[in-house]
Amino acid sequence: MVGAIRSELRKFFTTRMWWGMAIGIFVGGALFAAFFAYAFTSDLAGQSGGPGGMPTGDAEQIANSVYTAGLSIGYLLLLTIGVLQIGSEYRHKTITGTFLATPRRVRAMLAKVVALLVIGAVYGLVSLAGSVSVGAVVLGLRDVDAFPSTQIVRTLALSLLVLGLWALIGLGIGILIPNQVAALLIGIGVAWIVEPLASVLLGFWDWGAQHVVQFMPTQATNAIVNAVQDGSGTARLDWWGGALTLTAYAVVLAGIGIWRTSRADIA
Amino acid sequence: MTTATTTRAGLIEVTGLTKRFGTFTAVDDLSFTVEPGRITGFLGPNGAGKTTTLRMLLGLIRPTSGTATIGGHPYVDLPHPLSSVGAALEATNFHPGRSGRDHLLVLADTADVPASRVDELLELTGIPAAARKRAGGYSMGMRQRLGLAAALLADPEVLVLDEPANGLDPEGIRWLRGFLRHLSGQGKTILVSSHLLREVEQTVDDVVIIANGRLVRSGPMAGLRGTPGALVQTSDPAALAGALRVADVTSTVAEDGSLVADTTDLRLVGDVALRAGLPVYGLAPRTADLEALFFELTEGTNRNLGAGAAGSPAVPLERDAMTGEEGANE
Ligand SMILES: Nc1ncnc2c1ncn2[C@@H]1O[C@H](COP(=O)(O)OP(=O)(O)OP(=O)(O)O)[C@@H](O)[C@H]1O
Ligand SMILES: [Mg+2]
Predict the structure, then answer these.
(1) Quick one: closest CA in B to A98, which residue?
(2) Residues B9, B153: one domain?
(3) Keyword Zinc: yes or no (chain B) (predicted)?
(4) Ligand 1 closest atom vs CA B195
(5) Cβ-nearest to B111 among A3, A11, A266
(6) CB-based contact A7:B107 (threshold 8 Å)
(7) Owning domain of residue B270
(8) ipTM for the complex?
């Protein structure tokens, strides 16, 4: 099992994709942090409860938001990585070699799961390196406390988990939709277009706004890192509720995928 | 099956193996064994079911029924699969963006094989220079060699190679032959598929021939070649046959009027003819035309060619023309 995990990590770090992704995540983290650090502190200067749907939050939420702003790019990249970790194996038929080396397929797939969690954590660190360094400087320049509480540490640690979980969601999607281009378009389309639209539509329906929207993957992600809210008055889960919700998505999607893979003919 | 109870490490046993894709039966109740220390050719025309059979043997395709075991165990139950069985299935199983060496390292990780062994195999298969370049730029022959290196990585007892000669140049094919001979000399079990009997005839000890998913013939290569003899053309075959019988050589007259003597001693046949005062127009060792034989074995069962193709294909074809296509069906 250890060998299989090592093998999965080597698969990832022996193609060019990994450092392209690393640069993207670092730069994304830095840019988003700079932008939000600037934007939120401007709002704060003139805010009084956030009328007109202005983002609202205390100093801790602002710091959280700034440091995890890059996650909105990061989780899509990890989703992509998750899809490709299995999709490229089908596309290039390397899955044959993978299952010859580890014929117990569930074990082979669990090795992928562990490897993706590790990869998620590594990229989480890369993202934080970009966002915390830049974000803290901008907040400091704006005379806002860059580290208002120790809760920030929990947020930073959780953002590593968030990326790992999104990678697992990608793994599940990558298995269920064997064409990796289609899988990517659908995965990103759902996260960026379908889910926000559904949230807005459900927002018109009170029960939906209070009981459904908070369980959507992106909303759950925001709950985990305790970002500022958009002031639309929808309910939000606690950080642990968000973590459990996102984990549930990852477990269900990856689980169905692994089950499918363990039975399929590899031709 | 006499070997059914033995569990010799390198013995491959296929028993009643069947695979249906929907209503199409790709492999049909196939049974054969592959012996350690010998090279076995797994032969059949395109679409005969070779790859499907090998993939079932390797646990990649789930059989509809039947079993395939290696040393008495299904592939998925092997505790150290790569050090038991090395397989090279298709020459395209590489990520184009990963170098050949990294491909081997990815496999080496799972089998606890050190990087030094990877480099050793790259030397052995003759691609050390290309190994650090991305596999997307490899030629067919380089891919085959990389596939072979991957199969040999953990020094397995059993080798399963699907069309390993595809894309190799004549020099490469000769190298492959020598290489396989060397490995079987070490006692390894080698199963190598091909759709050309001639391609492997100098390499293999045994053959398993399939067509339309069914077993057509299995056994030693020597049995397929038939007994060697001498082919002689003369003016009076019956007279020469009599003269040869005096010299203790049996013979038969073939359809085309030439004589087939059951001896490999061409000088003897020539001398006998000279003493009998018979002219010799042609004298040659008789070798089985393996290509024709293979065609007969695999295509002879094809309903479109009609019955009796095993004798002389020309005759039933004429009959086809007279009776119409359906009339020749069995
Ligand atoms: N996944 C599949 N679904 C449906 N039919 C299949 C599948 N895989 C193989 N077949 C069919 O099964 C038959 C046997 O295919 P197979 O690839 O085993 O032949 P082969 O002997 O390896 O041929 P070749 O010499 O061309 O490699 C073919 O008719 C093929 O079309
Ligand atoms: Mg084939």
Answers:
(1) B107
(2) yes
(3) no
(4) 25
(5) A3
(6) yes
(7) 229-286
(8) 0.86
